[in-house]
Amino acid sequence: MDDSVINFPPPKTSGKRRHRATRPQLLSRRTLDRRTNAARIFDRLVGDIESDLGGRDQLTAIERSLVEAYAGAALVLDNLNARLLRGEAIDIGEHAQAVSAMVRVAARLGIRRRQRNVTPSLRDYLEAKPDDAEATE
User: How far apart, in Å, are the Cα atoms of 110 and each of 54, 67, 113, 119, 123?
Assistant: First the structure.
């Protein structure tokens, strides 16, 4: 047996870069075209719910995600109801899931309006208040 090593020639390359596998790109609301009718309805519903809950700035990140989840389920339910009203057959399981999801999310967020805090901070109050020296002159 010969102890010599067999050397294979390197593979020929065409000079082009090989395609590298990429990670799947996740869709998000921020990357989609917001001009669609569904996007406008979704955004309006999110804004209305956030307003009912005291404003976006009063919500935690989790609450904001729950608001978007609720709006998505509401959009699906609206679509299913419209198809049902047109006389089309719908998946009753999908309908029930959308309703159930909305009920669970609403239970977490609360279904009562929250008052928005409009009390100015101490700094804002003092900056807006005229100085006592200026007021007496």
Answer: 12, 11, 8, 23, 32
pLDDT tens track for 34-43: 788 989 999 9
pTM of the full structure = 0.65
**How far are the Cα atoms of 10, 11, 12, 72 from residue 19, in angstroms, in the given order?**
19, 16, 16, 36
Cβ contact 67:109 at 8 Å: yes
Sequence-distant (6+) residues with CB within 8 A of 99 are 77
Quote the CA–CA distance of 32 and 18 in Å, as a whole number: 30
Domain boundaries, the chain: 35-116
62 burial class (0-12, 13-18, 19+ CB within 10 angstroms)?
Answer: exposed
User: Do 59 and 50 contact (CB within 8 A), yes or no?
Assistant: yes
Can you tell me the distance from the alpha carbon of 74 to that of 101, in angstroms, rounded to the nearest whole number?
9
